[in-house]
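Slide 14.
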Amino acid sequence: MARQQAVNGIDVGRLGKLIDELGEQPRLARFQFRAHHEWIDGVHARTMIREFYGAGEEDRTRKQPFVIEADEPDILLGEDHGPNATEALLHALAACLGATFIYNAAAKGIEIEDLTLDLEGDIDMRGLLGITRDVRRGFEQIRATFHVRADASYEQLEELTRLAQMRSPVFDIVTNPTPVEVRLQAG
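Slide 15: predicted structure.
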């Protein structure tokens, strides 16, 4: 069996095969990711992520769930057991933009030496606390800066940055309205 070429840690042979399979069988491209969230105390909570549906079937290959602690800093009456939800959103956006950048670089055969992203989000807490309806409850603006070292032209890196934005699911989620259905089961 021939060894597949890896670019940036991505097996480009497998990546090409995955793209071909999902293009030929669109039903396999349908995924459903899940999270289970439990309140602990105060604003401290824990989210567990394990099984998901993808490639036409339930995936139960993860041996243990991923556990993400959530809390608030002391100034917001928390005990700092983990990032708050808006910080976790910045993590999700950074992780998705970074992964999408790396996938596209690998597909184009561009070796990345170093990639870091810095994200900042501005929020006015008066919206969350119900002090005024005149300010947005969520981020007013998010800024993401890519820091890249690679044997590539500025134009190539600019194209990868554009593709990261264009193809990142989380970037799409935060820049376009996503319907969210909320239900209550009491008792």
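Speaker note: The first strand starts at residue 6 and ends at 7.
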